[in-house]
Fold this sequence. Notes:
Blueprint: E1 20-24, H1 30-39, E2 43-48, H2 52-61, H3 70-76, E3 79-82, H4 89-98, E4 107-110, H5 121-125, E5 129-135, H6 144-148, E6 153-157, H7 163-172, E7 176-179, H8 185-212, H9 218-236, H10 244-247, H11 250-263, H12 268-284, H13 290-305
Parallel strand pairs: 1-2, 1-3, 3-4, 4-5, 6-7
Antiparallel strand pairs: 5-6
Amino acid sequence: MNASHPSPGSDARERPARLTVGVVGAGRVGPALAASLRLAGHRPVAVSGVSDTSRRRAETMLPEVPLVRPAEVLARAELVLLTVPDDALPRLVEGLAETGAVRPGQLLVHTSGRYGTGVLAPALRAGALPLALHPAMTFTGSPVDVQRLAGCSFGVTAPEELRLAAEALVIEMGGEPEWIEEEARPLYHAALALGANHLVTLVAQSLELLRTAGVGAPDRMLGPLLGAALDNALRSGDAALTGPVARGDAGTVEAHVAELRKHAPQAVAGYLAMARATADRALAHGLLKPELAEDLLGVLAEGDRG
Length: 306
């Protein structure tokens, strides 16, 4: 068990008993969480998956755990992980509740960042215990994901009487629980998407542009730079802003836009949007001098007109 697990003498409400675990939706997340729960002493007993890829993933991550239909997962498990895409979650919960698959006292956990426990209302009416546990991590669908859960923050939302049990489950998976109020879930999820998902897009565009510029190993060039930038940003926030926009180098920014229009026109809109956001933050924090900002903002406005 993880060293940070509650001690054996903890109140039973704070430390879930050893549970049978089921997974509905064998995407990248569910099998990894179930494998982590198995390491904590819980017992995966059933998993469902639709595609051939998800079935192979389940067989790799949860060997010897039978693949069954969703209703059968609920019939076999005391703790059920609903790890389907956000848009599919409400319909899945409604369907399971309407068909009588949900049992009173069953722990029903979804991993959507967007939703709190409100989306589980149909199951709650059927007597289930609703938890929303969202790991703030990207997943590969491979065993390395289990290791990455160590120290991973989870956005936790649950009824107050289940809060300690929800947090204990996260700790047993090696994670760090972070309480998110029900109404704050969409904003919480938007923040994570803004940082993580858009970062991948920015890095991929940078790699492509460096290759176009003739750089033979763009990943090796970007790795130390981006690592340092991320570390500085996490440590210092806006004080870490550097580069031509933060300095007010309007001529350099103008040259950038011209080159992007020539070699990667699809990247122009993103460059301008991020440059404008960077200028606004640099101005607000006194890094960009107002007298330089005027020319810079003029270049960005001209860039929008093409």
